[in-house]
Design brief:
This protein has 9 helices and 24 strands. A hairpin with a 5-residue loop joins strand 17 and strand 18. The longest helix is centred in the first third of the chain and has 15 residues. The protein binds adenosine-5'-triphosphate.
């Protein structure tokens, strides 16, 4: 039996807000691999890590590649390190690339490390110590913070995954307005949704496949299948050259960042969770258009927020009322507020207590504290103070999920169109 040995390559922290993208760097490496007859095993991977990580540029993503560990491994390593040296944005203080080479099977402890990189914060020292303990070859550039994400990128198991097709611009167009035919994006969405998703935010008329930063990416299309991506690329028209494109396998839109919390008090700041609670008060809007309310359970309570960028989602949240039981998905941020990504209604409180109706048909008024009710029309009186339960109509529905719009969605958040898969 022939046993094939693999070389795992992790790369992270090469870009800055002014340019580059680690996926573009990876695509350049893959081109050089091809020129030299080095074949990738499986798709390159784009792995999103802790959304609250402090030094992220945008979406906290690391990249990993897997090749056969044969006589070309030395050349492959040279290519990777050469491209990272050549293309990383070294001038930016916050760009601290890290490259990892690992030869062998991904172990359970490496998988556990990867989940920690999604759920918690890891220091450079911790990552380095861990990497050495499992036999990683570690390359740090400047502070080398990228090794934290690089080790996670090679180690994360993908029980659920999606794909993203990234098309790259000619470097002379970097920083200029992207020339994408928006009508063709609408057509692409019509022809390929829900196999592709997150293309357009219809509520905001926002083209989500187009980045808003000066990076090399012309557009990125997300999908459950490679076939749908290829079809989508055929439909989207652009009026500038695409110098290269690459499909990544990714943990985007899998909810991998969400941990199931037993109760409210067990959740920690900077963690992402799903938790069930009872709405304590009617959601209200405060300065800046953010909407807040509390949920509670037997262990405690937490403030939940639907922030201004979530736009119309706040309207949906405003339909919640005291006593509703909901399951919220999201993360606990800076202000210790639970930032809602989506929620599911478990049980609506559709009962309202009102004054009784008089025999004459008119709703009665209170006759004063502990004095029962009185009808203002016919003078009829009831001694009891007890209001009567009335079933009310609700805009929200039991069991239904409600989510933030595409324009405000996290890379890791699973959209409802994937929830039933
Ligand atoms: P882009 O999405 O454009 O590729 P980015 O948002 O991924 O950019 P990076 O340049 O990769 O930003 O920077 C993120 C940094 O955070 C990396 O150095 C990575 O190693 C580090 N990092 C990732 N996960 C964690 C974590 N759990 N704890 C601490 N640091 C982390």
């Amino acid at each position: 039996m022939i046993i094939i040995n693999f070389l795992h390559i992790g790369i992270d922290d090469t870009d800055s807000p002014d340019g580059m993208c680690t996926t573009y760097l990876a695509s350049q490496i893959i081109n050089k691999f091809e020129e030299n007859g080095i074949k990738l095993q499986d798709y390159p991977r784009l792995i999103r890590l802790n959304p609250f990580a402090r030094f992220k540029t945008r979406g906290n993503g690391g990249v990993s590649l897997k090749i056969e560990n044969d006589e070309n491994a030395g050349l492959a390593k040279e290519i990777v390190l050469g491209e990272v040296e050549k293309l990383s944005m070294f001038d930016c203080d916050n760009t601290n690339p890290g490259v990892i080479f690992y030869d062998g099977e991904i172990t359970k402890e490496m998988e556990d490390y990867a989940f920690r990189a999604i759920y918690e914060f890891i220091t450079i020292e911790e990552a380095e110590e861990f990497g050495k303990s499992v036999g990683c070859e570690i390359h740090k550039f400047k502070k080398g913070r990228g090794i934290i994400g690089s080790i996670a990128a090679i180690s994360l198991p993908l029980s659920d995954y999606t794909f993203e097709l990234l098309a790259y611009r000619d470097s002379k167009n970097y920083g200029t307005e992207r020339r994408i035919n928006y009508d063709s994006v609408y057509l692409m969405d019509k022809e390929t949704f829900p196999d592709t998703f997150e293309n357009i935010d219809y509520s905001e008329n926002y083209i989500a496949i187009e980045p808003k930063t000066p990076c090399p990416v012309l557009y990125g299309i997300r999908s459950n299948t490679v076939e749908a991506l290829k079809k989508a690329k055929e439909i989207v028209e652009v009026a500038e050259p695409i110098v290269d494109w690459c499909i990544f396998k990714t943990n985007q839109h899998t909810d991998m960042h969400i941990q199931k919390a037993d109760n409210i008090s067990s959740m920690k700041q900077y963690g992402c969770y799903e938790v069930v609670g009872e709405v304590k008060n009617k959601p209200t809007v405060i300065d800046g258009g953010h909407m807040f309310f509390y949920i509670k359970d037997e262990s405690g309570e937490i403030e939940c927020g639907a922030y201004e960028p979530t736009k119309n989602f706040r309207k949906t949240v405003s339909y919640l009322r005291e006593g509703d039981i909901i399951r919220v998905f999201g993360g606990i941020g800076e202000q210790n507020t639970f930032n809602i990504e989506k929620f599911q209604v478990i049980k609506l409180n559709d009962v309202e207590y009102q004054n009784p109706i008089c025999e004459c048909g008119k709703r009665m008024a209170s006759a004063g504290r502990n004095k029962g009710f009185k009808c203002k029309k016919c003078g009829n009186k009831i001694a009891s103070d007890e209001k009567v339960p009335i079933k009310i109509d609700r805009f929200l529905e039991n069991s239904q999920f409600y989510e933030t719009p595409v324009s405000a969605r996290r890379h890791l958040s699973k959209p409802l169109c994937r929830m039933l898969l």
